[in-house]
Amino acid sequence: MHPNPMFRADDEALLARLLDEVGFGTVFAQTADGPRVAHTPLAMGPDGGIRFHLAKRNLLTPELDEAQALIVIDGPQGYVSPRWYANRDTVPTWNYVALELEGRVSVLDEAGLEEMLHGMIARHEGKLAGDGWSAAETSERVWAAQLKGIVGFEMTVTASRSTVKLSQKSSTEERQWIAAGLVSAGNPALASWMREAVA
């Protein structure tokens, strides 16, 4: 989390947006063998917890039940060049959006795991053009075999810390120039967040 309070956001609104736009995060936890990390799709649970699944063979999987963990969801990010400022007598910086979630993790039962998977499939398939795919197209044999290879988890979030660093220290005009520069550099996602923040 960036120390400047200027770069804070409404964590609940930011979480909802990042889950919708990104839907993927990084889980960190301390283990007897040192810190470990896993990368996984994320979903909101029915009671506001953060659900995810890992392969049974992932080194973090056996360590997570009832463990304290940290989940980081990264939004758009990118380099900001001094060439996009009125006064080039400055230094480069990096704009980014990130949310840290801390809490205790528990294992989902099979019904919870199934509910999470079907919800994720429906959400992500719904964003794609054309005829959607449904889990009903997978045979029971294949589905059951895949299900046996993963473990579902849910984090009860006890703390959250946001960073939405979008050149807030710059003037409105300069922020528009930076957004245009980001588009020209091939980063329209970060430019879009900046333009929304300026409006």
Structural class: alpha+beta
Q: Any guess at the CATH architecture?
A: Roll
Q: In total, how many domains does the architecture comprise?
A: 1
The CATH top-level class label = Mainly Beta
* Biggest sheet layout: 6 strands, antiparallel, barrel
Could you tell me the CATH topology label.
Answer: Pnp Oxidase, Chain A
Shape: globular
Tell me how many strands there are: 6
> What is the helix content?
25-40%
Query: What is the CA-CA span between the terminal residues?
Result: 24 Å
How would you describe the overall organization of this protein?
Helix content is 30%, strand content 35%. The protein has a single domain, classed as Pnp Oxidase, Chain A (Roll), CATH 2.30.110.10. It is globular. α4 (172-184) packs antiparallel against α5 (188-198). The chain has helices at residues 11-21, 110-125, 140-148, 172-184, 188-198; strands at residues 24-31, 34-44, 50-55, 68-80, 93-107, 150-165. The mean pLDDT is 95. With 199 residues, it is α+β, with helices and mostly antiparallel strands. It has five helices and six strands, in the order αβββββααβαα.
Summarize this structure as a short list of keywords or feature phrases.
single chain, Pnp Oxidase, Chain A, globular
